[in-house]
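Researcher: Hi, I'm a grad student and pretty new to this. My advisor asked me to get structures for two proteins we've been looking at. I'm not sure of the right format, so I'll just paste the first sequence and hope you can take it from there.
Model: That works fine. Here's the first sequence with its structure tokens right after it:
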Amino acid sequence: MTAPAIADNVPLPSRESALQPWSDPQAGLDTNATDRYAGTMTKHMPQYHEFFNPVLDALRELGGSATNAELEEMVAKLMQLPESIVEAPHKDTNATEVGYRIAWARTYLKKYGVIENSQRGVWTLTQAGRDTPRVDTTEVRRHVKELATPTKAGEGGPTTAVHDEVDEAEDAWEDAVLSILKSMEPAAFERLCQRLLRESGFIEVEVTGRSGDGGIDGRGILRIGGLISFTVMFQSKRYKDAVGSSVVRDFRGALMGRADKGLIMTTGRFTAEANKEATRDGATPIDLIDGHLLVQRLRELGLGIQTRTIEVVEVDTAWFEKV
């Protein structure tokens, strides 16, 4: 993954000045996040650095923490991005261009010290982030560019280079698995989903795969605590592009009166409208598993994916100089 270009030869403020609390230049106006972006709907794809402050605002709107999906949805809402922008794909991948650029924005903000993430992928505001409503985008880019310069031996601290948080290897293995899944025969992919459900605690999992059954590929029972059970019908499809709301509506219509819940698993991704349709009030709930969640679950269960720990040795040259 290639890092976005950072502008050079631009007068830059200090990091301290960039971390000063933000004040609206139009005194007297409400400065909450919703009002701040009112009337700013754009028809062009924002640059990655244009997401810096919206990401911070979105985290505040969500109570100071959020998953990647929650963050992207709130940013799009605050910036009033049209669906054509939100759903634009990033090259030939399952990711959207907006999601890709927000990922870079998160990376820069993390290196700048205003946000952090847990191993479970939940992003939170640091104390600096809570104290800094707005950041200077130029200063953030300069700061990260300076971090990217390898430390010279003898200047103190271990000799290490700062690497991008958007890990190329992480993206590569996901893309490799998705490529395999998309090339599988439909029946094989259904069997894989059957195995995944069994490994996840479902019982009596059957693959039906009957044509003309409203997209239902199988059923299973999820028992909780040995006392309560739910009948779940699932659909497993190898989609290359986005899955729209019509797929969710048709699937729900097919399982009405036949199951307590529905589950759609795909190698693609779901549109914002599909996600809304899946959780519509008064309708049978449907859980959505996109390509990213699918490969992550396969990794957690060790199905076709193995992980290993690599030991990294660093030499602290400054320590030896003090001997």
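Researcher: Oh nice, that was easy. Here's the second one.
Model: And its structure:
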Amino acid sequence: MDPRKCQTSTASPAEPGELPGWLDYAITGVDGSTKMLEMAAGKFPDHRLIHADITKIPESLNSFDAGICFHVLMHLDHKTISQFLASSSTVIRPGGRLIVDLLSAPRRKHSNRKHVGWHGNTSFDIREFTKLAQPYWKLSQWRGIVLIPIHRIPYFLRPFLSELDALLCKSFLARYASYYVIELERIQ
């Protein structure tokens, strides 16, 4: 299940500026936009696509082992994220996993970036998000990604710096990465 936007790109991650479509990895997609669902249906006609609000995922979908929610939560306020965590807990079985990405609050505190508009204004530290996820979820594991601002570096240098970035994100510096990828486990 992908309880986020039904991103429809199918480009290879090696292509500049492109990410793989999450429906390449999931068989069910949930999206609040009928237009995105129509686009997804054109590319993935064999997938089950459901129109629903992220905070009201139909409980009839209560049979998933795992869910993915990427590049969504950073655009929502804490109340909506809390509602999403509650809603997703009704469709992922106890012991199942939910994998999300978040903007790193410690990193944001050390940047001079001004938060303007809707894009990426919500960030967390690990402890704060773990607390928000309760009582439905417990932290299984997390990882920092993008410590080096790879997206601002010329494409030909990225492969070399990506390996260094991955190594640094396994160190004590992980909490200062730009993003966290968090695996939550559904509480019994």
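Researcher: Is there anything I should tell my advisor about the second?
Model: You could mention this: Residues 78-89 form the longest helix (12 residues).
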